[in-house]
Design brief:
Blueprint: E1 12-13, H1 15-20, E2 22-23, E3 26-31, E4 34-37, H2 50-54, H3 61-65, H4 70-75, E5 80-84, H5 121-148, H6 154-162, H7 165-168, E6 180-181, E7 185-186, H8 192-202, H9 208-213, H10 216-219, H11 222-228, H12 232-243, E8 249-252, E9 268-271, E10 277-287, E11 295-302, E12 305-312, E13 317-321, E14 333-343, E15 347-348, H13 355-359, H14 362-390, E16 392-393, E17 396-397, H15 402-431, H16 434-440, H17 442-467, H18 479-487, H19 489-493, H20 498-511
Parallel strand pairs: 1-5, 8-11
Antiparallel strand pairs: 2-3, 3-4, 4-5, 6-7, 9-10, 10-14, 11-12, 12-15, 13-14, 16-17
The structure holds protoporphyrin IX containing FE.
Length: about 525
């Protein structure tokens, strides 16, 4: 994914010249027809100096690719001093925007020769532009933040806002009218296939915590404000603040006392005697983006039920970091509301009727998560295909082992099955109005997400077995597989646990059964 940081020097050298530089005082080696001067690097090499002394003056291509990710060479391109006379590099290095040439590393619609009924030229233009943006602008920061656990930079947020990428996170809708999107797409053209593309391309930054840190809180909360705000001026101001990247928003429903069980929520909102304010008291847990949010779309108990209120951050709102198994770059928070006064026009929907406000966004949230996890599985297939061709064990590449090919067959099949089902559901979303989607697609999307994360479970398990110890190591060859195995559960739990969603799917089918003996 990383791009080349510098050009290969134009100097040409012979293999005989390289062979002479075989001591600690001058230690060269050949990797992929190019010559590397490792003399000053030996002591800094994370794999130690002994191994480098052993290959001094030699062609170390297969030794190198047996142990390193290709991006290591790109990162250390400055060590390259020339190319072997009459030879040229064979390794394909990824440039920003490129499609992968590894089979199954791209969905079928992006694979040369293959066709799809779902995607138009508009989708293809958007895909190309978003891929380039992710490779160039998001990937490097995402990698760094995933590791150090700090939050997305304002600089990147500003860039995403300027390109209207932030606005696309809410899905199709009026908020895109008049905006020109990446690839020159008019906002009015943006449909659920464009939406799928954005979700899948963003997850190519392979940083699961950062992926959620990147405006996913806003994605699942600003939609509720847009749909349910009673005060149009407030709705428009807040939309503008968030889509321009000046302010951040999150959804604050779950509590230590209640997860998916909204009826168990203990945070209260009580009206002041003059009726002008709600006073909010209580706590929230596992709130994605809560650490840096300026607004909290908060589920509260009111007089006779449950209500949703847009709470601006003030001194009576405290947020504390929660460390989960993915990076704190997601800004996951524990929140305390201590007598927070909020004007009554911040109520979303009707008092005591907040359940529909929360439910209204679930389909899109679950569907978007499925887009991401489907793309993650594909990335893992790519990692495993590359590794099993590159890795030499018992004297031959790993791919020569039938048991490895069986695992790859299962991984590829699961990935393609999820993508095909996802596209079929997406097509229905494009052709049903909002009310029909709410009525008819809750079940299928629940089943789809639940199936996708079950597949992710199997794919993660197989991938670790293929990578061995490296699949358990946070750096080096297996780091993407290690991350997926550690984090795929976020998609299985967030937005509705696997079993709950599977059950929802069947219960919705029960409602649609004909009322007759069949
Ligand atoms: C341009 C030349 C090289 C560079 C820039 C380089 C860089 C690195 C880096 C960054 C790592 C840390 C692991 C990772 O992030 O992938 C590493 C690990 C390692 N390197 Fe190299 N390396 C080079 C050549 C070699 C060669 C030629 C050999 C062996 C003959 C070698 C053997 C190792 C070993 C054994 C490890 C530890 C791998 C592990 O823990 O799985 N390196 N190297």
């Amino acid at each position: 994914m990383a791009q080349k940081t510098s050009q290969t020097p134009s100097r040409t050298l012979t293999r005989a010249e390289v062979a002479k530089n075989n001591t600690e005082d001058s230690l060269w080696c050949i990797i992929d027809h190019q010559v590397y001067d490792l003399t000053d690097f030996v002591d800094a090499h994370p794999g130690g100096s002994v191994v480098l002394r052993q290959i001094a003056g030699q062609d170390a291509t297969s030794a190198f690719y047996n142990l390193h990710r290709q991006e290591v060479l790109q990162k250390y391109a400055s060590l390259c001093i020339g190319t072997i006379e009459g030879e040229k590099a064979e390794v394909i290095s990824h440039q920003a925007g490129d499609l992968s040439r590894v089979p199954y590393a791209e969905p079928l619609w992006l694979t040369p020769i293959f066709k799809s009924p779902y995607y138009s030229e508009s989708h293809r233009k958007l895909q190309r532009a978003v891929r380039e943006f992710v490779d160039r602008d998001i990937y490097p920061e995402a990698q760094q933040k995933e590791e150090d656990g700090t939050y997305i930079s304002q600089e990147l947020v500003d860039k995403m806002a300027a390109n209207n990428l932030l606005a696309t996170r809410l899905g199709p809708g009026k908020h895109l009218a008049g905006r020109t999107l990446l690839g020159g797409i008019p906002g009015e053209e943006f449909d659920y296939f464009h939406d799928l593309i954005v979700a899948q391309e963003l997850s190519r930054a392979v940083s699961r915590g950062f992926q959620d840190g990147n405006a996913s809180g806003m994605m699942i909360s600003l939609t509720a404000v847009r749909q349910w705000a009673n005060d149009a001026a407030l709705r428009d101001r807040v939309t503008d603040e968030c889509l321009s990247g000046r302010k951040f928003m999150c959804l604050a429903i779950t509590e230590a006392f209640a997860g998916s069980d909204v009826a168990g929520i203990r945070t209260t909102a009580t009206k002041t005697a003059d009726g002008k304010h709600y006073v909010i008291n209580g706590t929230k847990k596992w709130i994605t983006n809560g650490m840096f949010a300026d607004y909290f779309v908060t589920g509260c108990r009111t007089g006779n039920g449950f209500s949703v209120i847009l709470v601006p951050r003030d001194d009576n709102v405290t947020t504390r970091k929660i460390k989960t198994s993915y990076s704190t770059a997601a800004a996951t928070a524990y929140i305390e509301f201590d007598n927070v006064h909020v004007p009554v026009n911040h109520l979303l929907g009707k008092e005591d009727q907040g359940f529909i406000v929360i439910m209204s966004n679930f389909n899109h949230e679950r569907w978007a998560m499925t887009c991401g996890v489907a793309r993650w599985m594909r990335t893992i297939v790519e990692e495993c295909l590359k590794w099993s061709h590159q890795r030499i064990v018992f004297g031959k590449p790993l791919i020569q082992q039938p048991v490895i090919r069986q695992k790859l067959a299962a991984m590829i099949s699961r990935t393609e099955a999820v993508q095909a089902w996802l596209e079929s559901v997406t097509y229905q979303m494009c052709n049903l109005d909002y009310a029909q989607q709410s009525k008819l697609l809750g079940g299928p999307i629940g089943l789809l997400k639940s199936y996708a994360t079950r597949c992710a479970h199997e794919v993660a398990d197989d991938a670790v077995n293929i990578f061995g110890g490296r699949g358990l190591t946070q750096s080096g060859m297996g780091k993407v597989v290690e991350q997926f195995h550690r984090t795929y559960k976020f998609d299985a739990i967030l937005g509705g646990a696997e079993e709950v969603l599977a059950d929802l799917g069947v219960r919705q089918a029960m409602k649609q059964m004909p009322k007759a003996m069949l």
